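note to self: dont lose this again. the chain is below, predicted strucutre after it. 360 aa total, dont forget to put it in the shared folder this time
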Amino acid sequence: MSYHRLNTSIKYAFLPMLLLVLFLPGCFKSDQAKVFKQKDPITSIYTLNQQRVNQILKTAFSQIGNPYRYGGNSPETGFDCSGFVSWVYKQDGIALPRSSRDMLAVGEPIPMEELRPGDLVFFNYGYSHVGIYTGEDKYIHSPRTGKRIEEVYLTAKGRGDHFVGARRIIDNIGVNVISDRLKNQWIAQSRHQTDLALQASAGQRRSALPNSRVTQSTLTAASSLSPAKFAAPKSASVKPATVKPASVKPASVKPATVKVASGQKAAAKKTANAKTKKNTYKVVPGDNLVTLAKRYGLSSNDIAAANKIKDKNKLQPGQVLIIPAKAKTAAVAKNKVTKKTAGKAKVTKTTSAATPKTKS
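---
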């Protein structure tokens, strides 16, 4: 009896120890699992930095091929260098100054050997040019007039730029180099979105144009009308319309002689007008009525009477004088007389030269 009690007491004494041995490994494993399931804080920070830099660079590469525009700061107008950088960071919620020189006051300075993707890189001693570092000694920027947004090497001398400094705007510790494959993927996505936007805008423009077909509203209005109003009565006999042939009168053609006669009349009328047209003369400095009268074979009184000149000694330079019509005939007659006399003089001269002199 005593042995049975002793055995029972031993069993109850070892029972807590047995339970402890059974539960301890389970507790240890669960605690150990919790420890390993916790995320590494450094790794999570690196992941967030990588995601943010990737988003910034994705926005930058979406504008590849956009033209340079001085003072531009949007995809619609184009970009200059600082307008492009400020617009890219603005899409991520970061406000940067507008000019490249003012951007030097933002962030922390970084030497060239410590550059990481997302850093701002500056060129020229006046800090007149800025871009965004993309890794592997490359950066993306909006170059100059006539060029488009592109990715080039830091040592590229295409526009004479030389690296002078860099600034770090966001925490990009642990950011890896962006592969060319990922960059090309960003560019392709941007072009696809641009194509979709252009197609949508073209569809809106087409829908805004008036449609030549019958619209639904007109169909509804037509269906509401009673067809009885437009149906012809069955008993009515429709007679075909008789079309009378039009009497065409032959066109009267005037003979050519009439046209010739009318042309001759017009020519005769034109010559008559030319004959009756008065001659005019514009006075120049040094002219007077006496010299003009001699030139046209008239008297000074004739010219004064034709122009109603009271003071014969005063002629204004630029004044237009009317020369009477008979002046022309007089001048022509005078010229004929002079020609005849000159011809007679020539004849007498030639005859005198032809007759030999007789010796006395």
